[in-house]
Specification:
single chain, alpha/beta, Arc Repressor Mutant, subunit A, Rossmann fold, 2 domains, seven-stranded mixed beta sheet, two-stranded antiparallel sheet, globular
Length: 359
Amino acid sequence: MATIDEPRTLDPDRLMSFVLRAVDEVGATLSTALVVMGDKLGLYRALAGAGPVTPAELAARTGTSERYVAEWLNAQAAGDFVAYDADSGRYTLPPEQTVALTDETSPAFLPGIFQLALGSVLDSPRITEAVRTGAGVGWHDHVPDVHEGCERFFRPGYDAHLIGEWLPALDGVVAKLERGATVADVGCGHGASTVLMAQAFGASRFAGFDYHDGSIATARQRAREAGVHDRVDFEASPATGYPGRDYDLVTMFDCLHDMGDPVGAARHVRESLAPDGTWMIVEPAAGDRVEENCNPIGRAYYGFSTLLCTPSSLSQEVGLALGAQAGEARIRDVVTSAGFSRFRRAAGTPFNAVFEARP
């Protein structure tokens, strides 16, 4: 973390060190587009388990241009995404990178976050203008890579932790779901979390709500594909006014901080819950102080917060703009101000914090 120093004489070595680090940042920025390119063109999947290959062989396997593929592979080698053997002129995707770049079932799967980042950068000109005026930019106004990348980034973590760790960490919730409960998944996006819970708990019914019509249409399709559409309903509705009462469980996955009026949403959750119901809030992992978040994960989340989360909140009524690194104390304030008497951190991962709120 950078600290504020007393005024001093310019140090040429420190200046050059920063310049070189900044050049590395430019390479990382460009690499974001190259990773998305490799994912969309199937280059990583063709490299997976293939052993050492030449650019010509990879291009032939993927139906792409050899000249472009050669340059892409060189960029991947320079960034340590692939291994390069100078003697043979061949490139290999190591097993660790194979998991991270091709296995969508792994919590280490990365192309989603790159796709989300690329979409955020593509939209940055309009965010720059919003910064001048203080206006907001709604989630629905972003390019498709933002919506698709967001789901692909968070879904592997939900797959890995939601059923086996997060829900069991809540008091008595799994038993209710196994007997048959009613669940509202608010801010459901493409419905990844909703469908996952429905697949695991066949006796329960689920309703997914999101204000974005396009996401709801995708969620309905995902439910049909998963064969749970008979127990899952998706509806376009705001977090402060979704229908239904006496829910046994209300969930919010990585969305409370995006809301313009999170306190109003929390009050509506309180009104919609059964007397012994539970509200599960999954939020980006964050400390309460800036210095606690000056690390690689915090840096990425602050970036997303500037380009996505804060503009989203400011585009809505109230516009509280908690930000993606709100931290536990601010989430607690939102929850308790809405009338919840119990709040605790129930579980977590390096990327997420899981909170339980009870009436």
